[in-house]
Design goal:
The chain has helices at 2-40, 46-79, 88-116, 123-129, 131-145. The protein has 149 residues and is mainly α. The chain has one domain (2-145). It is elongated and about 60 Å long. It starts with a helix and ends with a helix.
Length: 149
Amino acid sequence: MSEILGILYPWVKALHVVAVMSWMAGVFYLPRLFVYHAERATVGSELDLTFQVMEQKLLNLIMTPAMGVAWVCGLILIGMGAMDFGAGWTWVKLIAVVLMTVAHIWLGKRRKEFAQGTNTRTGRTYRLVNEVPTVLMLVIVVMVIVRPF
């Protein structure tokens, strides 16, 4: 059994990294789309509808599946012993991943508001929100690579 796990581990880890990269690309790009959508499109216009299609496809075809694969692979890696639950870095990383998931869900709700024509947030709000995934990503990477505590 340990031989099979030894063979599978790098493949699961590679898939996890690819899924996280895909997820992060979307989490960085969707708020930027929201900035332009909020600032440049009027409800019902052709530009509004174009942004809606772009946002919906990004969220449903890239971000959400990538997040799901990242979570599944991450849980498999945990099951294979990849994390030390006695170390502080593990808990900080897990909290940051949960917060990234919350950010993803929040962005999904904002996409629905744009689709319904009920967005009330400004481009400035979405510019600020765009920083949240960046900070969380930095925390996650430092925890996994540096393991400061």
